[in-house]
Design brief:
The protein is mainly α and 268 residues long. It has a single domain (42-266), classed as MetI-like fold (Orthogonal Bundle), CATH 1.10.3720.10. It is built from twelve helices and no strands. The protein is globular, with a radius of gyration of 25 Å. The two termini are 44 Å apart. The mean pLDDT is 81.
Length: 268
């Protein structure tokens, strides 16, 4: 078959593309009709200028203050909240994801746990923080509990995909070789899932690290609360110190997590 014949044999779906374009254009036009731009306020412009000024003129004393009000302590607390929230969420997500996998448990049971995961993912992390702060009180512990719950929703969804993609042929071979259940899990299941599970947990840690900052706004510990207070009172040098520390922290974590995920993906 020549190239021209091959091109002529392809399905003619131009009308589908035109229809999709028209639908997208309608959605954009409809969404834009509810947005009104009233220009920049004088207060907003002043805040933006203050933040930029603070980043280039940070409070150096605050950057090297080793008390519980200094940047190093607050950054370490933010990291600790993200680490613990990710670890607890990743561990709790393992049984939940197995119970939500249709190739492991009956479908009614799997659908029940999938509905539970969907409920967790539907509620934003800020709402979870407002709920748990009533239970645990303000502080870093509230941040850990909130991030653990939120992590279960996202990590479980990724775990389920990995579990349902398991190569069952390996398990059948191990069963034929006389392996017991523990040996099948250790040799047949864990090697297939470990890299994906670890990669998902690292990705969630990136998200939790940024969420830990915003959760501090409602009193869930971390650097968010003093950052908002500094913005409210116009302490731009303090704002610059907090933001500069967060920028450096996120860059380091992003670089390290990308390298680790790359090694896991290549099996090294």
């Amino acid at each position: 078959m020549t190239v021209l014949e091959q091109l002529q044999a392809e399905p003619k779906n131009l009308w589908k593309r035109v229809l999709i374009f028209i639908v997208l254009l309608f959605i954009v036009a409809w969404g834009s009709s509810t947005i009104e731009y009233n220009g920049l306020t004088a207060k907003g412009t002043g805040i933006a200028y203050g933040i930029i000024y603070g980043i280039f003129h940070p409070n150096k004393a605050l950057l090297f203050d080793m008390s519980d009000a200094g940047v190093p302590y607050l950054v370490l607390q933010t990291i600790a909240i993200a680490v613990l929230g990710t670890i607890f969420g990743a561990i709790l997500a393992i049984p939940v994801s197995f119970l939500a996998s249709t190739n492991i448990v009956p479908k009614p049971v799997a659908y029940f746990f999938r509905a539970l995961i969907l409920m967790i993912r539907t509620i934003p992390s800020m709402i979870w923080a407002l709920v748990w702060i009533r239970v645990t009180g303000p502080g870093a512990f509230c941040g850990v509990v909130t991030q653990s719950i939120c992590s279960i929703g996202m990590i479980s969804k990724m775990y389920i995909t990995a579990i349902e993609d398991l190569d069952t042929g390996i398990l059948e071979s191990l069963d034929a070789a006389g392996c017991n259940t523990f040996e099948k899990i250790r040799v047949g299941i864990l090697p297939q899932l470990s890299a994906g599970f670890i990669s998902t947990a690292i990705y969630r840690f990136d998200i939790n690290l940024k969420d830990a900052t915003t959760l501090g706004i409602v009193g869930a510990g971390g650097i968010g609360s003093p950052l908002v207070q500094s913005i409210t009172y116009g302490r731009w040098s303090n704002v610059g110190a907090f933001l500069l520390a967060l920028i450096i922290l996120v860059l380091i974590i992003e670089y390290a997590s990308t390298r680790i995920r790359s090694r896991l993906a290549r099996g090294q």
